[in-house]
Amino acid sequence: MTDVLESHWSNRDRKAAIETAVAVLLESIGEDPRREGLVDTPKRVARMYVDELAIGNGRDLAAELSTTFAEDHHEMVVMTGIPFYSLCEHHMVPYLGHAHIGYIPDGKVVGLSKLARLVETASRRLTIQERLTSEIADAIERALKPSGVIVTMRATHLCMTMRGIQKPGVDTITSAVRGAFKENPATRAEFLQLVGS
User: Fold this and answer.
1) 89 is catalytic
2) Where does residue 149 fall: left (phi above 0), alpha (psi -120 to 50 degrees), or beta otherwise?
3) Does the domain spanning 2-53 belong to CATH 3.40.50.10610?
C-alpha cells in the first residue's frame, strides 16, 4: 500500500486506482455501479480525492508561508475563524470547523492569506484533529521563528454525528501552544479573549 505514495504514480494512475476501488466498494455494499445514478460516481470520487481532498499529501507546510516581510512588530497577530474541512483517518469521514491562529513576530511577519492557505493545505489529507493542530503550529514556528505560536481548532466530526455514537452538536476543541503563549498565561489569556473562547 505504501507504493500509492511513491512519486512515480501519476495523477491519472491515482484516479484509475480510485475508480476501481470505488466500483468495488459500490458492489460490496449491494449497489450496481452501472446504474444511471452511479455510472460516473467512481470518476467523480477519484477527481474529488486527487484534485481536492488529498492535495495536502506530501506538501511541506512551512513552504506555504513563503511570503514573509521583515517587520519590527513584536505584538500579537491573530487570525480567527479560518474555515477548514478535513477527513478523519479512522473512517475517512469529514470533520469541519474553524481554526484560530496567533503568533508573536520576532522581526518577520507573513502575508495574512498565507495563514489561511496553510490551514487549507494542512487539512486536505487524512489526519486527526490533534495532529492537524500541532502541524499548523509547527509549520508557523519553522517558517517564521516567532516568539510564540498558538493554534486552536473547533470541529464537528461526522464520524460522531452521522455514525457510531450519533451525537450531533458535540464539538472537539484542540490547541497547540508554543513559546510565549505557553510560558505566559496572560499572553495565552489575551489570545483566547480575542478569539472569543
Assistant:
1) yes
2) beta
3) no
Q: Tens digits of per-residue pLDDT, 115-134? A: 999 999 999 999 999 999 99
Q: Domain 63-195 has what CATH class?
A: alpha beta
At residue 146's C-alpha, the angle toward residues 140 and 150, to 5°, is 60
Determine whether 129 is an active site residue.
Answer: yes
Q: Where are the domains of the chain?
A: 2-53, 63-195
Look up 130 and say whether it is catalytic. no
Cell numbers representing residue 180 in the block: 510565549
pTM, to two decimals: 0.91
Of 96, 92, 86, the residue nearest 171 (C-alpha): 96
Q: Is 8 a catalytic residue?
A: no
Active-site residue, from 91, 98, 141, 190: 91
Those residues with Cβ within 8 angstroms of residue 197's Cβ, 6 or more apart along the chain or in another chain: 100, 152, 173
* Residue tagged active-site, from 71, 90, 130, 183: 90
